[in-house]
Design brief:
It contains 2 helices and 3 strands; from the N terminus they run βαβαβ. The protein is α/β, with parallel strands linked by helices and 67 residues long. A 3-stranded parallel sheet has the order 1-2-3, with helices on one face.
């Protein structure tokens, strides 16, 4: 049997508080992608992007890191 496929997504963001939830939800609902981890690269955000990501992350089917 072939090894299970895994995928890591890198998501660069800057002040995406209004849109990041939709992006993460779209990743979570993809079929067969094998996404196991997402790295969100915060680029000098001055809005609530990081807070929104932290609120959403426990409900995602993959692990998530903020950098």
């Amino acid at each position: 049997m072939p090894p299970a496929r895994s995928l890591v997504a890198a998501i660069p963001v800057r002040n995406e508080a209004e849109r990041i939830g939709h992006c993460l939800h779209a990743l979570a609902t993809q079929q067969g992608a094998g996404l196991t981890h997402a790295v969100v690269l915060l680029n000098n955000c001055t809005d609530t992007t990081a807070d929104r990501i932290r609120a959403i992350s426990p409900h995602l089917p993959f692990s998530l890191s903020l950098i």
